[in-house]
Amino acid sequence: MSDDGFTVSILVGADPERAFQAFTEEIDRWWLRGPKHRFCPPYGEGTLHFAGDRERKLVEEHPDGSSFVIGEVLRWIPGELLHLTWRLPNFAANEQTEVLVEFAAEGDGTRVSVQHRGWDALRRDHPALHGLDRRAAAAAKGALWAETLTALRDYLQGG
Amino acid sequence: MKLTPYITVQNAAQAIDFYCRAFGARETGARFTEPDGRIGHAEISFGDFALMLSDEYPEFGAVSPTTLGGSPLLLHLYVDDVDETVAKAEALGARVLRPPADQAYGDRAATIQDPFGHRWMISTTIERMDKETLQQRVGDAYRID
Asked: DSSP string covering chain B, please?
């Protein structure tokens, strides 16, 4: 998997174990809603959660009973890292990217870092790239992760 | 409207560490790091006020005082104790251009150059005064409107 994107990170006011727990077990409570952040319509009414014990998956489940598998967990180390495949609804069966989330103690909190890799393996006219060149696409995906991580930080501050 | 300074430095990671340790800033925004290690964007806050910064991107015209050989920008920071802040900054590598001194307008102020070439005026308000008192203090040197 190529290393073609920004690493986006943020400091959160919680220890790495708590930050990991919030990122995984409580993901639906803080992950932003709406078509920019959720995966399938009706955006915001579906719920995100990690399903399964041994073979964990990140799934969005919808009120009509349908579901969409965003990714399969490759590594799950509480308080340290979460590594999973990452697909969008407009990906073909053989297309995927990868997300690596790392949790590292820093000061009296935790730096949560996200690397979202593999965008440059997609064909240039892939709809997920929105017609942007490689750098602009990476920056746009990074900006989206910045919003997501800011939501996690705010959730941990409030909780 | 809202103005947020956005500065360019060589080694943004070290600069963030310096501003947090020397000035008590806090990293508040998301940090974007490129595969080559350059920080493309970061945000730190001094109380309610943000400062954005990045590493150098000469390909986009973003170069630092280190590369330029100086900076026309002066950042002004109010702190509780200018002497303590300047001493801390100096211990962490800043150059004191003008040591802390009481000013006629009621501040105790100093000017330093941080290790990344940016100049800071550091002040603590030690006395509040009305316009008339200030005019008497500065005499004919300035007209206070």
From this structure: -----EEE-SSHHHHHHHHHHHH--EE-S-EEE-TTS-EEEEEEEETTEEEEEE--BGGGTB--HHHHTS-S-EEEEE-S-HHHHHHHHHHTT-EEEEEEEE-TTSEEEEEEE-TTS-EEEEEEE-----HHHHHHHHTTS----
Given the structure tokens 């030690």, which residue do they identify?
A: B126
Cα A108 from Cα A125, distance rounded (Å) = 44
**Record: contact A3-B35, CB cut-off 8 A:** yes
Check CB contact under 8 Å for A4 and B35: yes
CB of A58 closer than 8 Å to CB of A48: yes
Interface ipTM: 0.86
What would the pLDDT profile of A74-86 be if each residue is shown by its tens digit?
999 999 999 999 9
Closest chain A residue to B34, measured at CA: A6
Give the DSSP H or E segment for A104.
strand A97-106
pTM of the complete model beyond 0.80: yes
Q: What is the pLDDT of residues A12-53, one digit of tens each?
A: 999 999 999 999 999 999 999 999 999 998 887 889 999 998
Structure tokens at B8: 């360019």
Please count the residue pairs, one from chain A and one from chain B, whose beta carbons lie less than 8 angstroms apart: 34
* B111/A72 Cα distance (integer angstroms): 54
**Phi, psi torsion values for A94, nearest 5 degrees:** -95, 10
